[in-house]
Specification:
alpha+beta, globular, 6-stranded mixed β-sheet
């Protein structure tokens, strides 16, 4: 069989580099192309549409890719394995069979056997391409194999004498290959009856964990912005070359690029969706671009950078994520561009092609996404789909406003990322967005409850008249207690013991029925709300795990099985589930400042110790559970520094807005010392923001890059610009005495100083210092003004 390539192709083959997954993907592409033709013809297909990849078991093994397609005739097989030939239309197919086949097989191994058969053929026919034996005549040996069933059909490719590094990678990385190709072919695997099996395991499509179609946020209390936007923009039909794929000017009869006469009028359409992921990720966000169902770009972020077409080279400004960029992003999408040409490696589109540029304009417009930047440069408001999502979801604050789950104080990004992994595993409890949505609502409820608690602490209440009378020696009714009256427990739970005492004096036939455990649990459930901060899996690999749903008691007291008041109560459910009730009004929390997590761990440790019959001590159990299940509570300088910088980023953004509202950003700029100015310029350059020093103080956004401790000094020097519910809640101009102003300012400045110090220096700190900083990180958000 002649497999003579052209000189042009030989030069190209030497320049193309494919990773291992790309080599396998090239061979899968050709099988899926065949499946697509069969499926479009609506011919019933016996055996289904299945591609199987058998990985080498050793470095001397073979890679086998087989499919259940139609098979090929001898003539088509000869063309298919000839380098440079492609019978595929550049706009209809995934593969460029001759090119992709030769590059991928040659990069995998030195010998390739291709066997194919059609339904009814008497045998398998094929060719063996041995790169060590092929001479200048480019002739490969024909081969045949017997066929056990005349109805067999399909193609089998066997690559042997594998290059050692590639064989080693394929042998060790079956899961990674399944995950990668599950992402590349996710749309086809979900929307077509195609199956892909690798190493004996079915490849599952890697789906996007996005918010549901009906979720949205309210922008500026007036504009509803959905978390899912469908895209379907039909463009004018165009004239395209079927050989090289290039679009032509109307009226041409010959391709201006390759000279082919195979020109045809083709539809052009940009369709798919843009949306919001349920969690933030540092890498897995961005837009997937597809061609004929195969993803060419995954998690692509280039549309998040604005390129000034009127500027020079390198005139690019990243726009998302900028605020709290270290947390990652969550804008995602799937956009089909079947009409846009791709590179031979199929890892990029031809970005210089006008079809690509038109698609970019449809998706993100031509103006900057940032409204202030657009206005300054003379652009009208950007109303593209991407700009709409950017406007509604650019911030990552917990709550309904930005559709971010939280624990009542802050976002729970680590938890939502963990839930995303469960979504990919197919866990039915995480398939829909209900768990994320419930965490958003729980955050709002906990936040509202926290405000009420703080208000009740700061507002004097009515005196407890019963307690005063009791302290004076009188009962609740004003009468003196009887000498033989039993002294019940003092405090808020005294009524429980008194009730029990009263019951002993009543004949059994007249005593009220004692509440059952199940009734008590139902009452506590009805009188409690979810406490999201501690809803998680708690345990250790050596003793097992329990799934804890933590609930805060709203109506107390919390009573155990012996009707004794307790701060934490565990109710075991089926399987590994349990509900933990927390009475945060218990004196151990109110008076002694104990952490709910500490006492919850004690209860869970007891439960797991009994269940696993562990010989660990209780203290060892509690310590192990904390390290395994609550790593975020560790007094780790690096972790606390990250938390400090995240909160400071929020403060910076708010102070920038407040500074711009004053109309005097230059006043704040004048407080910078020379060394702080130098540090600010360095930070701006490191973050890709280049601006002349002369322009630096004209806008407030220089505060995004100043040293952290400068924010403290600016607040102390100019409090009236940021206090009084502008950035911070504390009253300043609303009081007349200087001492009252200093008192109002001191607490906010103290919290901010602790946080800025930790964000500036990541050196070793004493546990007490780290604990103080963590408390300031927890308390400063309570001092932030409510956003409109």
């Amino acid at each position: 069989m002649k497999i003579t390539p052209s000189a042009r192709v030989l030069r190209m083959l030497g320049e193309i580099e494919f990773d291992e997954w790309q080599c396998v993907g090239e061979l899968v592409d050709n099988a899926f192309d065949d499946f697509a033709e069969i499926h479009r013809s609506e011919i019933p297909w016996v055996g289904g549409f299945r591609v199987s990849v058998q990985l080498p078991s050793s470095t001397d093994g073979e890679l086998v890719i087989s499919d259940t397609g139609r098979g090929m005739s001898y003539e088509r097989l000869e063309r298919a394995v000839r380098a440079g030939w492609s019978g595929n239309d550049m706009h209809d197919k995934l593969g460029l069979f001759g090119m992709g086949f030769n590059v991928s097989t040659a990069r995998l191994g030195r010998r390739t056997r291709v066997l194919t058969t059609r339904q009814g053929d008497p045998e398998w026919i094929g060719v063996e391409i041995d790169l060590d034996r092929i001479g200048d005549d480019f002739e490969a040996d024909d081969i045949t194999e017997p066929k056990s069933d005349p109805n067999e059909h399909g193609t089998r490719i066997v690559v042997s004498r594998l290059h050692r590094p590639r064989a080693e990678w394929l042998r060790k990385n079956g899961p990674a290959l399944r995950n990668t190709l599950g992402g590349v072919y996710s749309w086809l695997l979900e929307n077509q009856p195609f199956e892909l099996w690798i190493g004996g395991l079915k490849v599952k499509p890697v789906r996007h964990c996005r918010w549901g179609d009906d979720r949205s946020v309210l922008y500026n209390n007036k504009e509803r912005i959905p978390a899912y936007i469908e895209i379907d923009q039909k463009l004018e039909d165009g004239l395209a070359c079927s050989e090289c794929g290039q679009w032509q000017l109307p009226g041409r009869e010959v391709c201006e690029d390759c000279g082919s006469v195979r020109l045809s009028v083709r539809p052009r359409r940009v369709h798919g969706w843009l949306g919001i992921q349920r969690y933030l990720d540092k890498r897995q966000y961005g837009i997937d671009f597809l061609r004929n169902g195969r993803k060419i770009l995954r998690w692509d972020k280039q549309l998040f950078t604005w390129r000034n077409l009127d500027g020079g080279i390198g005139n690019e400004e990243p726009e998302y994520p900028v605020e709290l960029a270290h947390q990652g992003g969550r804008i995602i999408g799937e956009i089909h561009l079947d009409h846009v040409p791709v590179t031979y490696q199929k890892d990029a589109f031809e970005y210089g092609d006008r079809s690509w540029r038109a698609a970019v304009e449809i998706l993100r417009g031509t103006a900057p996404l940032l409204p202030q930047r657009a206005e300054k440069l003379g652009y009208a408001e950007n109303v593209s789909p991407l700009a709409l999502l950017f406007k509604g979801y650019r911030r990552n604050d917990a709550g309904e406003r930005y559709l971010i789950p939280g624990d009542g104080r802050k976002p729970i990004h680590d938890d939502t990322r963990r839930w995303g992994l469960e979504f990919q595993k197919g866990n039915p409890d995480y398939v829909t967005d209900e768990r994320w949505w419930r965490a958003v609502l729980d955050h709002e409820e906990a936040k509202s409850r926290g405000k009420s608690d703080r208000a009740s602490v700061s507002t004097p209440g009515r005196p407890d008249e019963a307690a005063v009378m009791e302290a004076l020696g009188f009962g609740a009714s004003g009468s003196e207690p009887s000498a033989d009256s039993p002294a019940g427990p003092a405090g808020e739970h005294a009524g429980v013991a008194e009730a029990d005492t009263a019951q002993t004096a009543v004949p059994e036939s007249q005593a009220p029925r004692r509440e059952t455990w199940q009734e008590r649990v139902e009452r506590h459930t009805a009188g409690s709300t979810v406490y999201p901060e501690l809803c998680r899996s708690i345990g250790h690999p050596r003793i097992g795990f329990v799934e804890v749903e933590a609930r805060r008691l709203a109506v107390g007291p919390l009573l155990d099985e012996q009707r004794n008041p307790t701060p934490v109560l565990i109710d075991q459910r089926r399987g590994n589930a349990c509900v933990a009730f927390l009475d945060l009004d218990h004196e151990v929390f109110r008076r002694f400042g104990a952490e709910p997590a500490d006492l919850l761990l004690v209860e869970v440790a007891t439960l797991l110790k009994v269940r696993s019959d562990s010989d660990w001590s209780h203290s060892q159990l509690v310590a192990s559970l904390r390290a395994e299940s609550l790593p975020g509570t560790a007094l780790d300088p690096q972790t606390i520094s990250v938390e400090a910088r995240e909160l400071l980023s929020e403060v910076r953004i708010r102070m920038v807005a407040a500074l711009d509202r004053t109309g005097e950003p230059q006043r704040a700029f004048q407080y910078l010392s020379p060394d702080e100015l130098t540090a600010t310029e360095h930070a701006m350059i490191a973050n890709g923001n280049v601006i002349r020093t002369a322009d630096l103080g004209t806008r407030g956004d220089f505060l995004l890059h100043v040293p952290a401790l400068f924010l403290v000094r600016l607040l102390e020097s100019w409090p009236e610009a940021f206090m009084d519910d502008v950035v911070f809640q504390g009253v300043y101009q609303g009081v007349t005495s200087a001492s009252a102003q200093r008192l109002s300012l001191a607490r906010t400045v103290g919290y901010l100083s602790d946080i800025a110090t930790q964000a500036s220096y990541e050196g070793a700190s004493l546990p007490a210092q780290l604990l103080r900083t963590r408390l300031s990180i927890r308390l400063l958000p309570d001092k932030l003004a409510d956003e409109e």
